[in-house]
Design a protein that fits this description.
The protein is of the alpha+beta class. The protein has four helices and four strands; from the N terminus they run ββααααββ. The longest helix has 13 residues.
Length: 98
């Protein structure tokens, strides 16, 4: 991962500040099998803006990141902070595995 992190204040469950990396957004989409178009529709962010964020071309506004994170978290993704092992994403709920 490059050194660019995206800062966002989230007000879901608990108020917290997270570093969200562009790679985490891409990984979150892949985890739930969403295209950029799917995330754009769910978040209200344009596909072009999302592509630029994912390519680390610009630092997004706080409102944009809040919308992206809310959409992804609403779809069941949990962002894992960098805690010595590196940042990541996972499903917030256990999947029923049969």
């Amino acid at each position: 991962m490059d050194n660019m992190s995206l800062f966002v204040t989230l007000t879901s469950r608990n108020v917290m500040i997270k570093d969200i990396f562009p790679e985490q957004i891409r990984a979150a989409r892949a985890l739930i099998n969403w295209t950029r178009e799917d995330l754009a529709k769910a978040s209200g962010v344009t596909v072009r803006t999302l592509a630029r964020i994912e390519r680390s071309e610009n630092a997004p506004r706080e409102a944009t990141l809040t919308a992206l994170c809310a959409a992804l978290e609403g779809a069941g993704v949990e962002f894992i902070p960098e805690n010595g092992s590196g940042p990541g994403v996972r499903m917030a709920r256990r999947l029923d595995r049969k």
